[in-house]
Amino acid sequence: MSKKRETRTDEYAYVYVVKNPSYNDISLAAWDSVLYAGTPVVYDTRFGLDLGFIIGPAPQAGNVYQKGDDSVRGACLHFGSESEEHQEEPSSLDQREVHQCEYCMGCQVSKEPEKIRVTGDVAWLDHLATPSEMARYSENTAKENQALIVCREKIIKHGLSMKLIATHFLLGESKVIFFFTADERVDFRDLVKDLVQVFKMRIELRQVGVRDESRLIGGLSVCGRDYCCHCITDKMQPVSIKMAKEQNLSLNSMKISGPCGRLLCCLAYEYDYYVEEKSRMPSEGTRIRIDHDLWRVSEVNILSRQVVLSASENRTLYVPFDEFYFDDESGHWAVNEEYQEELFSSEE
Fold it and tell me: Where are the domain boundaries for CATH 2.30.30 in the chain?
């Protein structure tokens, strides 16, 4: 059914992000012509030839953020061109009713595919999906629900301690994959024999974790949006309670865990930024002398960009980040003298 695979030696090609909707894998693939989002393609996955859809051109490295760089102004491309910053918006529209991104070139311009150098770890698409292959894909999708029912019946028959979560028929090969979770190793050799007799094709049972279960089937998270692991990325990064603690979030596992029962993936999104910003400020517990009094750092608030200081008699002081500096001579943190004078003179 599939076309003959050829070894491509082209140095430059169009590289695209391809997503497999059945088991939510995302990968890069090259092609020799322009393709647009939604184009169905057949490519070589880790399970064999299968159908996927073009998401868009592969992201290219531009002005990459460097650790400690204060000049970063945002991800929007509008900030990258001085000529665009000074463009006048239509005067006929009420400025208060127009969203800031509605006339932003960085937010509205779609990126056209460009030929780039193809590296060794980027595979080539096998071919563009044909109408007959799309029809076969629809037939396979319809059969997957029935395959789930059959497999679950066989699991109960053999008394196996496993939870079946998804089934997928490969488009380019005669193989069906069953994804399941289990608390321990499962001997499913007899189960495979029964399934082969029913489906008359190769059977593959693949055990996945509880986080992978959420990635495969999707759903709504506590924020009301689709699971990050399902709609944004298929890479499961480790998340620890330390990330929540660093961001001053609740340490109650019930409040910072997703429906999968594991810590929320989004705890890792801003963790590096919090660590970097806090490294520039005095840590909690540091004692700083201000106006002849000894104050203790009780909190470093990244969102408000203020350091909360406490002293005797329940006194509390909120000092902006910009007013702190590290005195190399004394080896201690200090607050600018001008700010101290302005602060305590206003209290008087």
Answer: 280-347
CA–CA separation, 63 vs 49, rounded Å? 36
Residue listed under structure tokens 């959420």: 214
Q: How far is CA 203 from the centre of its chain?
A: 31
d(CA 276, CA 161): 45
- Indicate the fold that domain 280-347 takes in CATH: SH3 type barrels. (2.30.30)
**Delimiting residues of CATH 3.30.300 domain(s) in the chain:** 134-208
Helices (H), the chain: 82-85, 105-108, 131-158, 189-199, 210-217, 228-231, 241-246, 271-279, 337-347
Q: Is the pTM of this model over 0.85?
A: no
Architecture of domain 134-208: 2-Layer Sandwich (3.30)
Indicate if the alpha-carbon torsion angle 196, 178, 37, 83 is positive or negative: negative
Q: Which residues pair with 203 in a beta bridge?
A: 176
Question: pLDDT digit string (tens) for 117-173?
Answer: 887 778 899 999 999 999 999 999 999 999 999 999 999 999 999 999 999 999 988
